[in-house]
Amino acid sequence: MATDVEQLTRPAVRVSGLVRRFGPTVVLDGLDLEIAPGEFVALLGRSGSGKSTLLRALAGLDKDVAGSGGIAVPGNVSVVFQDSRLLPWQRVLRNVLIGLDGRAARDRGLAALAEVGLAGRERAWPVELSGGEQQRVALARSLAREPQLLLADEPFGALDALTRIRMHALLRELCERHRPAVLLVTHDVDEAIVLADRVVVLDKGAIAVDVTIDLPKPRSHRDPRFLEHRSRLLTALGVDDE
Ligand SMILES: Nc1ncnc2c1ncn2[C@@H]1O[C@H](COP(=O)(O)OP(=O)(O)OP(=O)(O)O)[C@@H](O)[C@H]1O
Predict the structure, then answer these.
(1) Which ligand 1 atom sits nearest the alpha carbon of residue 56?
(2) At the top level of its lineage, which domain of life is listed (predicted)?
(3) Beta carbons of 136 and 170 less than 8 angstroms apart
(4) Ligand 1 mutation target, pool 43, 46, 51, most atoms within 8 A of CB
């Protein structure tokens, strides 16, 4: 039995020495990562560096990694992808409640839709919603499951810049209220700095950079410390900061 102190200090996510190969190609090469309960970690890395591979492993979607040891995650994990993955033949509330049963779950679904600003749209069809609204439904679907770990793979990558900024504010609020541990995969350095408590960079199969973003929220792009973080992270990604 774990003691109370162990319960409090135990990370929500612990990855140790994770290796993932596809044929001869080693994508994850002894990767270590811990995420504390309630901590928001953003994962950056060049295209093909293995970000989605890591996220899929944590989500339990990679059968070849599952059960191999090296990964400890909470029992209750939700995933949000770049496309909302709503079922077009189900109305909004039905989509939120997929896999959930009972009155309490229905109430959580309704509350989650209200939290993402979609109260009154429960009976809409996905096709009647904008891309940003569909991603809100996807967020509500995750929230209704009250996850201890939220995994997000470029959830705003397909949205226009203005909608993305609104979604940042929404995600920040939701995470502050519900406090899941979060791993957000993104290509967007600014998005990582705006949202995360920590930003990690994946390179050559392991975490190459691990930076705590100790700036008050909401964060301003004009804050010189924001710019310092951006510059450091862009350098880590091999991009020149003009
Ligand atoms: N099922 C698979 N079979 C073979 N190779 C794969 C498979 N899944 C991923 N890979 C390879 O693993 C590497 C990492 O892919 P992954 O999708 O994790 O990268 P990523 O960092 O998420 O990239 P991006 O930023 O472009 O989305 C790539 O070289 C990719 O081709």
Answers:
(1) 18
(2) Bacteria
(3) yes
(4) 51
What 3-state class would DSSP assign to 227? helix
Residue tagged 């096709």 (tokens): 127
Ligand 1 center to residue 47 CA distance, Å? Answer: 8
181 within 8 A of 39, measured Cβ to Cβ = yes
Q: Would you list the domain boundaries of the chain?
A: 20-68+148-242, 86-147
For residue range 159-174, list pLDDT tens digits in order. 888 888 988 998 998 8
CATH of 20-68+148-242, one of 3.40.50.300, 3.40.50.1000, 1.20.140.10, 1.10.20.10: 3.40.50.300
pLDDT score at 10? 83
**53 pocket-lining for ligand 1 (C-beta < 6 Å):** yes
C-alpha 186/C-alpha 199 separation (Å) is 10
CA dihedral 88, 90, 95, 99 (to 10 degrees): -120
* Number of neighbours of residue 130 by Cβ within 10 angstroms: 11
| pTM of the predicted model as reported, rounded to 2 decimal places | 0.92
Does ligand 1 lie within 6 Å of residue 45's CB atom? yes
41 vs 163, higher pLDDT: 41
Q: Alpha carbon of 208 to those of 31, 44, 80, 217: distances in Å?
A: 10, 10, 25, 26
Residue minimizing CA distance to atom 5 of ligand 1: 22
- Decide if 50 contacts 205 (C-beta within 8 A): yes
Q: Tell me the CA distances in angstroms from 174 to 3, 29, 95, 116, one per residue in order.
A: 30, 33, 19, 8
ipTM of the complex: 0.97
